[in-house]
Amino acid sequence: MPVTESSIHVLRSDEKDSADPAFVSFAVPHEKDMTVLAALLWIQDNLDGTLALRYSCRGAVCGSCAMVINGDIALACRIHLRNLPAEVIVEPLPNLPIQKDLVVDMTRFWESWARVRPYLIRFDDMPEKEILQTPAQLDRIEQFINCMLCACCYSACPLQQRNPEYVGPAALAALARFENDSRDQRDRDSLKEVSHDSGMWGCRSIFRCIDVCPRNVRPADGIAELRTRALKDLLGRKKR
Ligand code: SF4
Ligand code: SF4
Ligand code: FES
Known about the structure:
By secondary structure, this protein is an alpha+beta fold. 33% of the residues lie in helices and 15% in strands.
């Protein structure tokens, strides 16, 4: 099998000077199926063991290996070198502080996530077995359940770039998921918590979050659902 070579240019920075990153180039020989993640691990094993990156499953399940590859936000384990030009530019996710090389500090993303209480809230006693849902009820939340918390949407969102306080597409999609979940009993205050310009009303419907999501979650649709729900609540109150 013919071996070809790619030049992988990695934007690197160390913990002490992450404000001044610089590209470092590595020549990586490969056969037909090497992914960008495998190439980075090959660099770690053979050229520079100090290269820092995050990964776990290697199979597009865990969401750990999101980065920017030739300008596109993507999972490194899903992108094959054979589908890229010979020159490959790899950078860390935007909108999050760099810790080292391709590793970003996800704290802001997790804090946003926690703000929407992304779990089932119930006041009734739990049943002895599961709480059943109809297929139609599952349909309403299924795409949001597929989120793997990779932060691709968070990094692609232009509003997030301008306003780090923005709750963000993944967290708002998670709120839409629980608001729409037939088993959830949260009160309407959960909508009030994101009813501001750094929450659901901030989104400019640019849809970058939809473009980059590797799991076909459509966060902007969830945000639109939250807005519709909030407006219906408001109209309902005015009628009373
Ligand atoms: S649609 Fe909204 S959440 Fe999605 S990328 Fe655009 S501004 Fe961000
Ligand atoms: S919505 Fe999609 S892009 Fe955003 S964190 Fe979830 S899986 Fe990743
Ligand atoms: S390593 Fe898990 S998604 Fe890429």
